[in-house]
Sequence to fold (301 residues):
Amino acid sequence: MSYFVQVTGDENEEPIEIPTESDGTLLLSSVEAQFPGATGLKYRHPASRGLRGVRLHEGCLHPPDEGWKFVFVCSFPKENKRKSDDTLENSMSKTQRMEKKLQCSDLVVLGLPWTTTEKELRAYFSTFGELLMAQVKKDPKTGKSKGFGFIKFADYETQLRVLGQRHMVDGRHCDVRIPNSHGEAGTRQFNGKVFIGRLTEDISHEDLRTYFGKYGEITDVYIPKPFRGFAFITFLSPEVAQALCDEDHIVKGTSVHISNATPKGSNQQNQGRGGPGGGQGGPDNWNQQGPGGQNMNPLNM
DNA sequence: GTTGAGCGTT
Fold:
């Protein structure tokens, strides 16, 4: 005789009744059929008021001593590892990525007065809409402005409005354009490694892990020492890395650019190795070791 | 101490 167990994906949702097996156990696969991704069940025990897990053995969920008379809630992986606003932000960026056209990009602001500060830049462009980032590019030695900067808006509509007109900042006409660097570079991705460009020195390993950990498990973060303005992040999932490629992300107020960890100017390191057809310096060759155990691939892929 | 088309420390 089979019994129906009330199972819900969330404590506030209406339960679905799922049939047990003839031996009184509930198959995890039956639960998964209704709640894809579920890894187990839990329930709130009336006496202890605490959440209790249901015993799971070889795909069979075993009833508590009281039987299947509670409402059981599905457990999902990583459920407690993530704050709710994190998951929100996560799914947000996922849907935004599907509509890349509607996503704001960094904008370059040309023709700024030499004296305009980041604060003034922000003050001016904030009048159009929420600003996520504002930077004035300066000479690192003198600290003087180079006369241009970068901004990023939260809303695409705002971006369109700002792009469609000329601007007056501190008494000087300025142009706002889509940066040249925004082109679609190599979309190929061979593993989970991405290049993080335009990094600033105040961004640490931990900052990168914290920020990019939202998108997937990170297996490595590499920041060259001495500082060189870039880093590499390796994700467990190549798909995650792929999805992030060619995007701009704001980490600690700096817009960093993510791109494929493939060297830009396919360097000639593999020449003379006698690959058929002149060895096109592809990923297959990159793991070959040079003399002295040196990795021939400059990017350590 | 300057400048005025451009593009962000691979």
User: Anything to note?
Assistant: Residues 84-98 of chain A form the longest helix (15 residues). Residues 106, 108, 110-111, 114, 135, 137, 140, 146-150, 172, 175, 177, 179-181, 195, 197-200, 224, 227-230, 255, 257, 259, 263-264, 298-299 of chain A lie near DNA strand B (CB under 10 Å from a C1'). The mean pLDDT of chain A is 79. The CA atoms of residues 140 and 272 of chain A lie 41 Å apart.
